[in-house]
Amino acid sequence: MNDRILKTLEFDKIRIQLENHASSVLGVEIIKKLRPSSSFEEVVRRQAETDEASHVLRLKGHAPLDGIFNIKPHVKRALIGGVLNPAELVQIASTIHASRSMKHFIEGLLENEVELPILEEKSTQIIPLGELEKVIKNAIDDNGEILDSASTSLRSIRQQLRRTEGNVRGRLEGFIRNQNAQKMLSDAIITIRNDRYVIPVKQEYRSHYGGIVHDQSASGQTLFIEPQAVVDLNNALKELQLKERQEIEKILMQLSGNVAEVAEELQLVVEIMGELDFIFAKARLGKEMKATKPVINQKGIIRINQARHPLLKKEEAIANDIEFGGDYTTMVITGPNTGGKTITLKTVGLLTLMAQAGLSIPASEGSDIAVFKEVFADIGDEQSIEQSLSTFSSHMVNIVEILKKVDHTSLVLFDELGAGTDPQEGAALAISILDEVYQRGAHVIATTHYPELKAYGFNRPGAINASVEFDVETLRPTYRLLIGVPGRSNAFEISKRLGLSDWTIQNAKQLIDAESNEVENMIASLEKSRHDAEEEYKEAHNYLKAAEKLHQDMQKQMMEFYERKQELYDRAEKKATEVIEKAKREAEEVMKELRELRFQSAAQVKEHELIEARHRLEKAMPTLDQQRENAKKEKQHDTFQPGDEVRVTSFGQKGHLIEKVAEKEWNVQMGIMKMKVNEEDLEFIQSQEKKETKPMATVKGKDHHVSLELDLRGERLEDALFKVEKYIDDALLAGYPRVSIIHGKGTGVLRKGITDYLKQLRPVKRIRLGEAGEGGSGVTVVEFK
């Protein structure tokens, strides 16, 4: 991709936005060199690394990339024997620390089973040079000051320095506190001249102190004198300062040598950290744009859902569905000027360049972007005063250059093709240019306001018309792209809205030929049909989504029913086993007593004792079935009527009869489920008349259906609690045994607030966090009594 195309489609502005999200100069350097790639494999890899970083930001919200510096020059200088200054060594230690933090950060994500193959590979290349970092930080603080702990000699020298300096200041303070000081000194202070401690003495008293004169005031009345009494101490201080500088130089030389020993590892660390900074900058830009990862293909298919121009404000950008490639490779967007055709053209071009550069695109999930070897564009006013070229000539020069290079791997964008010359000739040229580009196999989108091109999409295979919608009522474009419908000029409608007389408009209509009038009427009809079809599609799509949601909830509820059914069966089986065991024990005791009575030789078994034993045996018999039969008989009802409240015994659920569908079958409504049930499986509870005397509340949420899940992600706590309160009421009325509340992980404030509220509710039996397949700690599962 040449720089001219990148500038025309404003990719350079995207790069500037990307630079603002980089954490270091290293990332900025990579961004400045960023170009869209024409290699399918490279584009896929770039998109994958951006997606991984976006996933990390969604999980953690950040990545530890602070404290990275471009230490390449420092390392190179150390490698050739140069001595690094303290600030450079601090930058090296900071970069090492940042790399270790990043390595630990990625390893932590991998331990939590987050799949990050690209970031994992880069993390393994980071060599943790902790020893060098430790040595530097023990010698130099964050401000670049050499610490006493840098070496034993330095500590000893500095201790002597402080003592000697204290002695010098002590002697000089003695001069200042002397009773004659006020008369002989200009000011009672100790100052420094030529790195030596001095006092300000009046000119006439210079001989009183002796020593060395280092400076004088501008008037010459004050001399800065180093008294003879401190000359030797100052000389000793000067020697110690020299030793300190020599020791510091020795320490810096040693540290620079340590850096040189791991120069290769440091260069790799810098390279990897720069790449990581660049990758996370892409992810942060995508997050800011609310962008998504496109699906990359080699088939020339562009299918962008709800595409927005990334340089327009989010609240101003109109989202459009743009589908191009596949059955047709040429799109002609017609209509009046200022209708948004150029923005649509630039959006397609810029989003293609962004995708091929590895950036997310501002569009909905599932968008497809093709990889093109070259993107060509002729957009905007190319008039050149310097070259004495008209607008038309400048466009033609550009188009000629494009036609020399275009092939089947190219995407070509023409804005106002053929404009700037005689309309008839310009339209003919535009058609011919489009035909040539199509024959070369290239993908092309062209905008034009020539009416002759409105039929192009109907007359050429592989071509389609499109237009940008215009609202005649408000006299403003809506910027909605209509694929398959050519644009209208709307001149008559606009003129009428602006107040032009009906007579003038009717006269103008008679002046245009019948064929043009028929075309305009056809386009108007197509627009109306397209609009009606879109409305019907939206309505059908909403019904489909509601039906899919209902289906999913029904499946989930049925699964919960079967789980509960098995639990009830198990409980019943356990109870039955206990009853049978008890009966066996009773029978064994009775039989034991009978045997004892029979074998007692002197005893006679009396009749009443046998009757009593028999009675005990009968009582020991399990009576569960008998009780169930009795209950069934008690509940038996001769005739059922629509509206009767019944219990479906096989499900253990209440419901009401809707209608009779066969001699012994009824449609029964149980909560959100409607099913056919045989009368033998029904238990009568109460009739419709009785039910009416005790009115019951009905729950009618969206589409008269209460979802099994409540999504509160992104809500404030107060609003979330209000929604939870209403949702719990609806779920209880719907008869749900269990519901899920999705609050996300985040800071945990929302989860804690919801949990505290649910603990206060009496109908709540148990509260728990979701399991791995239910959303983990981002979901709270509520079970009702």
Architecture overview:
The strands form six sheets. The chain has a six-stranded mixed beta sheet, with helices on both faces. The chain contains 25 helices and 23 strands. It folds into five domains: 3-129 and 262-289, MutS, DNA mismatch repair protein, Chain A, domain 3; 150-254, MutS, DNA mismatch repair protein, Chain A, domain 3; 295-489, P-loop containing nucleotide triphosphate hydrolases (Rossmann fold), CATH 3.40.50.300; 623-696, SH3 type barrels (Roll), CATH 2.30.30; 702-784, Ribosomal Protein S8, Chain: A, domain 1, CATH 3.30.1370. It is an alpha/beta fold. It is flat and about 135 Å long. The protein starts with a helix and ends with a strand.
Q: Keyphrases for this structure?
A:
five-stranded antiparallel β-sheet; 785 residues; MutS, DNA mismatch repair protein, Chain A, domain 3; alpha/beta; Rossmann fold; flat; 25 helices; 52% helix
Q: Could you give the topology of this structure?
A:
Blueprint lengths: L2 H6 L2 H9 L5 H8 L7 H21 L11 H8 L6 H26 L5 H9 L4 H10 L12 H26 L3 H4 L6 E3 L2 E7 L3 H4 L2 E5 L5 E5 L1 H34 L1 H27 L5 E3 L4 E6 L12 E5 L5 E5 L6 H16 L11 E3 L3 E5 L12 H15 L4 E5 L8 H17 L3 E6 L7 H4 L3 E9 L4 E8 L7 H7 L4 H10 L2 H86 L7 H14 L3 H12 L9 E4 L4 E10 L2 E6 L2 E6 L3 E5 L1 H6 L15 E3 L5 H18 L3 E5 L6 H11 L4 E6 L9 E6 L1
Parallel strand pairs: 5-9, 8-12, 8-13, 10-11, 11-12, 20-21
Antiparallel strand pairs: 1-2, 2-4, 3-4, 6-7, 13-14, 15-16, 15-19, 16-17, 17-18, 21-23, 22-23
Helix pairs in contact: 2-3, 3-13, 4-13, 5-12, 5-13, 6-7, 6-8, 6-13, 7-13, 8-12, 9-12, 20-21, 24-25
